[in-house]
Amino acid sequence: MKKIKIAHLYPKLLNIYGDRGNILTLKCRCEWRGIEVEIEEINIGDKINEHDIYFIGGGQDLQQIEVAKELQKHKGFLAQERDRMAVFLGICGGYQLMGHYYQPFSGERLEGISLLDAYTVAGNKRFIGNVTAETDFVEPSSLVGFENHSGLTYLKGETEPLGRVITGNGNNGTDGTEGARYKNVFGTYLHGSFLPKNPQFADYMIELALGSKPEPLDDKIEMLAHNSLINKKY
Q1: Is 8 among the residues known to form the active site?
Q2: What is residue 71's three-state secondary structure?
Q3: 60, 96 contact by CB (below 8 A)
Q4: First vs last Cα of the chain: how many Å apart?
Q5: Residue 155 has pLDDT above 80, yes or no
Q6: Which residue of the set 92, 100, 149, 226 is catalytic?
Q7: 150 preceded by a cis bond (ω within 30 of 0)
Q8: Tell me: the pLDDT tens digits for 156-198?
């Protein structure tokens, strides 16, 4: 039997806007196909071992500060996992910490773990609302979700956008990009939860983790929900 090991990083601190739904989606979509799933919650002070998929959600600034300090202890190992082509997904605050740093308006800079060549600085406007972005590597190509952030993220080097903004603001509200991708590392500002609204992206993560395309599922209901959010303004 095929098996996927998933690490849920710091769920007690970073689990805002239903981010745990991303883990549930991966679990269900694997089990519906007969793929065994092992989920390990990694909390402050825990050792991180090798997994196929790593997920980190979003949270408030205080929780981000605590997690940022903890992640520094594992920076080297997680970089090795990235280069081993393990799959990573970071949402909002977790996405920001996968870059080089997040600089808030006040207080010290939060150092990231540099899995992505990106950085984030606090903006003076909060981006809130639905987002539709177009990708070029999953089908259907539209990604939908709900953003709520004031951080402005900028991509550099070989790190590419997850998608091109059609509706909403995305990374910074100016360059038309949403999220980031490098190797099998993905970051996005899309909450609400991201993977239940985008089952094709969940399957893409499973495909990368397995090294082969999973058998198709009947996603008629899931795609009705997905399609209802395309280009939704608010």
Answers
A1: no
A2: helix
A3: no
A4: 43
A5: yes
A6: 92
A7: no
A8: 999 999 999 999 999 999 999 999 999 999 999 999 899 999 9
Amino acid symbol at 172: N
CB 6 within 8 A of CB 52: yes
The H-assigned helical ranges of the chain are: 20-31, 61-72, 75-83, 93-97, 194-197, 199-210, 220-228
pLDDT at 233 over 90: no
Question: Is 30 labeled as catalytic in the residue annotation?
Answer: no
pLDDT at position 234 over 80: no
Per-residue tokens: 57: 């959600």
Which residue, 110, 86, 83, 116, is CA-closest to 98?
A: 116
115 Cα distance to chain centroid: 12
Q: By the 8 A CB rule, do 8 and 42 touch? A: yes
The two structure tokens encoding residue 95: 């996405």
Closest of 84, 90, 101, 35 to residue 58, by C-alpha: 90
Distance CA(96)–CA(54), nearest Å, equals 15
Share of the chain above pLDDT 70, in %: 100
Is this prediction's pTM over 0.85?
yes
